[in-house]
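@channel sequence for tomorrow's demo:
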Amino acid sequence: MTDRFDIFTMTITQIYRSLQRIKNREMTEVNLKGVHVMCLHTLNHNPGGMTLTALSQACEEDKAAMSRTIAELTRRGLVTTSSKARYRAPIVLTDAGRETAAKVDEMINEAVDAGGNGLTDDERAEFYRMLTLISNNLIKYLKED
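structure tokens (generated this afternoon):
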């Protein structure tokens, strides 16, 4: 039992740290911080836009942190709101934001491909299925408290 715990926690921690380092290293190329990655990526896959609350939930980020991220991306001309009313207005990518998000997605795909090197498509699908199951089980476990 202890071996499973050690392997699981150490491996997940190392993967997380590697992802953080990749985000920070790769994003210097597009003059962004790692914190912007999920925001741009998520908005790129939701062309109709998302409210701040929905974006925060999708990125699993604190709403205040996401608000600061959106303010920075707005200042840089990468996102805007789709209406003049800022409260609950969907946040969308600008043309420059879509271009940057496409570069970000390209970098993400390269990193994901590197991480899955040596896996078959079936092994990769099974891995993600199991990882999702573990995540959902832990969320359920926490809700039972």
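heads up for whoever presents: The helical segments are 2-27, 35-44, 52-59, 63-75, 95-115, 121-143.
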